[in-house]
Amino acid sequence: AQAILAQACVGSSPPVANHWATAASCSMGGPATIDGREVEHTDNFFVAPFMLDGLEWPSCEHCFQALKFLGDQSSEATAIVEAIRTAVSGQAAWSMAQKHAELLRPDWEHVKVHAMYRAVAAKYAQYPDFARELADSVGPIETSISTADWQRMNRLILERVREELRPASRQHKKRLAALVALTEPRLQGEAALQELRAAVRPRAPQAGAATSPHP
Fold first, then answer.
1. pLDDT of the residue at 144
2. Residues 74-89: pLDDT tens digits?
3. What is the spatial distance between Cα 32 and Cα 78, in angstroms, rounded to a whole number?
4. DSSP conformational letter for 68
5. Which of the chain's ends, N or C, has fewer CB atoms near its CB within 10 Å?
6. How does pLDDT run across 187-196, given as a tens digit for each residue?
7. How many CB atoms lie within 10 A of CB 4?
8. NADAR domain location, by residue (predicted)?
9. CATH architecture of 32-187
């Protein structure tokens, strides 16, 4: 995670490519409100082309929707990824992805939050002006209304990225650790069962601890 963000420390933000300028407005998404004002670049549909996994993405939404199918080597999935990547807007990318549920990667529900985190982190790594503005903010992050649980998850992702962008001396270490845990891929299969068993396993009584019945 820190490696994605390390690039954001120097320089100024590159200009937003005109190639994607017409895609900037759509009815989905919306910027977060921080310190009493809307911060435009926090919107996942905000057009700010960035590189991730060797490809250029017009917005975080384009990247997120394509990651649903990235890794599938079939010609159909490859064509879908490219169509999403070059879609005229984030909304168009979203619409394309909804039409191909049969090709959705099997682990998507376990990795989708981390996929969006990677896109958001990559964007801020490549736009230092945006990164500085986010890192310098201090108030709660209020994300726009979204589907399912995404309003909360988008807030957690932005909070994680904000903490990671700050100098180590300003980071809230415990808060960052919690945010990382909430936005990393979820365990699956036997690993998830083992974690659950460990969480519910009763603790052994400490040596010498007195026990007494309930009154």
1. 92
2. 999 999 999 999 999 9
3. 32
4. T
5. C
6. 655 554 465 4
7. 20
8. 51-136
9. Orthogonal Bundle (1.10)
